[in-house]
Design a protein that fits this description.
The complex is a heterotrimer of chains A (249), B (338) and C (291). Chain B is mainly alpha-helical. Chain B is built from 14 helices and two strands, in the order αααααβαααβαααααα. Chain B folds into two domains: 296 residues, ABC transporter involved in vitamin B12 uptake, BtuC, CATH 1.10.3470; 40 residues. Chain B starts with a helix and ends with a helix. In chain C, a hairpin with a 2-residue loop joins β1 and β2. Classes of the chains: A alpha/beta (249), B mainly alpha (338), C mainly alpha (291). The interface between B and C is large, with 40 and 40 residues.
Chain lengths: 249, 338, 291
Amino acid sequence: MRFGGLTAVDQVSVDFYAGELVGIIGPNGAGKTTFFNTISGVLRPTSGRLLLAGKNLTGQRPHRYAQQGLARTFQTPRVFTDISVLSNIEFGLKFAGRRRKRYWFWGDETSVPWALRDAGGILSLIGLAQVAQLPAAAITPSQQRLLEIGMALATRPKMLLLDEVAAGLTEGELEEMARLITRLRDELDLVVVWIEHAVGTLLRYVDRVIVLHQGQKIADGKPIDIIHDRVVIEAYLGDEVLELGQDLR
Amino acid sequence: MTDRQTLLRDLIVLLGLIGWALVLPHYGSEFAVSMALTCLMYVALSSSWGLFCGSTRYLSLATSAFFGIGAYTTAIGLGQLAWIEVITLGSAVAALLAIVMGAAVLHLRGTYFAVLTFGMAELIRHAISYFEKSVSGTVGRVLTVVPEMNVLYMTVLSIAVVALVLSILIRRTRFGLALLGIGADEQRAQTLGVNTPLIKVLGFAITAAVAGAVGAAMAVRWTYIDPHTAFNPFIGFQTVLIALIGGATTLWGPLIAAIVFSVLAETLRLQAPQIYMMSLGLLLILSVLYLPGGLASMRWETFRDWYRAAKAWLKERRYELSGDKERDKQRARRRRSV
Amino acid sequence: MSFSAWLELLASGLITGGIYALVALGLNLQYGLMRILNIAHGEFLMLGAYLTWVAVTQWGLPAPLMLPVSFGVLMLLGFVIHWFCFRRLSVTSPNLDIFEARGLMLAFGLMFLVQNYASWMWGGELRGYDFLAEPVVIGTSQFAGNKLLIFTLALAFSLGLIAMLRMTLLGKAVRALMQSPVGAQLVGINTRRLHPIMFGIGMGLSGLAGCLLSMAYTISPAMGEPYTVTALIVITLGGFGSMTGALFGGLFLGVIEAIGMHFTNPSLKALLSYAVFIAILLLRPKGLFKG
């Protein structure tokens, strides 16, 4: 992905498989958010292709991505501030989240996971059921981040891109967020791709890690292999992280 | 109030207004009917404007272009086509223009879009003016076969009703929600599945269709039209003003404002038209500063809040002027240096 | 066409262009700095013109005296308007987009207010007065004395403004503010005071332009609008926020208009301007001279 003379993401080729939780780490400026923006349709890639479940989505508009099942959150929560938390979730349900009903205009929607059946269900899943009626501007920023995730889920995605959802959270909140994310992966059979700076926590929960550095993919594998990778340690993690090896599965 | 109750309320109000409007020609003077006609025209224009531009926050100043196109369709076609056909054609041509304009222009935001639509409206005006002069060899056109005032009134009334009904219905559909989403955060709405380019062009076309129909109808009111009167930018400006002061995102706001302004316009027009326009400008300024949601967003709380704000401001001034503020500052400074 | 005729054409283009540049600079200052698209800008130009006209015809003051006076009066007016209207807007608007939109609507209201005030106060007929109307001969070409003066003064003031922005501390503060509002505040630039001042200066410039215009042309309440539109076109050509771009854009547009008007139908002038405008906005929204 090139911007004028700057190649922000250079020949990064990744395959994602269903039901896995993948983390993307890398120093600032490595191209993580640009990568996200490119694979979610916000930016048009200057070269390369994007295939989602066999469908070629390269160069399509973001709403097509959403309709095909790719949902994302934004780094700073962008919720619709004027309407209630519940209505925020319902928005996604009404658009990309729509599925054909079993008997045409009546009955349950087909092929929707139980947890995502309606707005109330999604709210319970992310833990915001108690603030459902409040306007989205009135909840705390960490709650807004959860709402972001909820809105993404409302589109009934096959793949969920989480952009630094744990930024600014305390240790405890971080653990909860990580547990929520793994729960999403388990219960909803999603692919979850997670960009994060809180490397320690991320490495403990993900199945696979991709490391980006200056626009290039320098590593792609299991966490326990990554932290021993010489290149990664030099570029980003540093020697101290080897202690993490004890925590990892 | 539940959604269904609101719908019922809206429909009842609409029926009441229709009834009143139908009765007026029989009992009112010619002056009142003329005023009602202008009022209905602006109701149609500003309601349809507010439906798209209010929700999506894309402030369009192209209304005069659509109006003018409709007027010119009538001027050219009235001899050969029937009344209804001419109106529909005017509406369709305007909608087509909106689709073309929208496809080119709707990816720009905010001030760019407003300025650009204004530029395009003026461009069309000058283009038609030039075209008429050089190719058709005329400056204006005269309408010879003109339907009765009654027919005109009923037509404009129906267009206004259509605009209001569209407003009432669209708000309740996914389309209306999509428009609001675009206005709130366009990129977010896109990532949630809203096909923003299509929705925007569609909304823009609906606004244009109504404006074109109104233009086509009103052309017969002035039996002589030329580009300057048909594409008069003031029509576009007044539509925007009325919609904004009434409350662009609301359903009844534009209607209320249209009524208020029609009355104001007709009463002030003969004595001091400039005073009318000055008051329009002043009202817009006041509304943007103190009542951004428009007239329709006024509630009892608004007055209470204004009262409180005024009291607080007075208190602050008293505090300053009596010297207490200075004394407190000195005290704080002394405390800090201790 | 003979050389002197070309020169005259070019010169007349530059003369109008000089005024365009002056007006555009004021508008640019307001937009680039405060994101206020003041579409009532031309109306204040008109006020400056009327002020000068009143002073010359009713009080017998010499026209050049009105230059600093019209600048000062309109700067004060701009100060007041910013203080009472736009400051409140910046407080009550939740984000920049809404502030811009509301600012535009506010300017809209101002446009209505001011234009009709003038129309009510002084009537809609064309007014004017004579000043330096004798032709000046340079080489083989002839120019009207007042138009030459206008051009020189407009150019001088434009360059003066640009110089001020480049070389003085105030100018540096303004440019810093244009680039990063928060950063500028963090280094101690007082935005609360700077904004009204610069808004006032922008208005003052347009009043100055109006005063200059009144020396050579007739004035009417509606004269402001075409200048607002042209100023918009100029700052689009030159890039929003770029001062030298506005200067060159203004001169450029003036010349293009003069040439266009001469070789084609004069009534195409408006058509051309708008067509250029739309083309630029669609194809190069960042302006011809920037990037």
